[in-house]
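dude i think i finally got it to work??
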Amino acid sequence: MTQVLSMILLVISMFSQADTTKQVMRKHPNGKPYVVIYFSNSTKEMVKEEVFFSNGNLQWTGTYKNEVENGTWKYFYENGRIKSEQNYINGKEDGVCVDYDIHGKKTKESHYSKGKLIKEVKY
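look at this
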């Protein structure tokens, strides 16, 4: 099941990036990508950012609209497990943001509206 989901996400990612150009902006001393930016081919604006640990695992990724954070941003531990998921609209946190411990257990939910913290639940 996990492999099927991964494949579906890969196909969706490929189609969503069809109108983008990927640029490796910085590399780690070992030659692996550190910062990767995706630019829209039509508008030339930055639309996505990926930052990697030196071991090649993703450190964080997120999307932009009008060059500000927009959509879901995901942060990871160096071992590849999810650290947090945050939602942005026009550069401000909006919706439910979730934090996880290094084992993948949910530790906190923060509820935002237009950048203002409304409610926080700790587990």
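Residues 2-16 form the longest helix (15 residues).
im so relieved honestly
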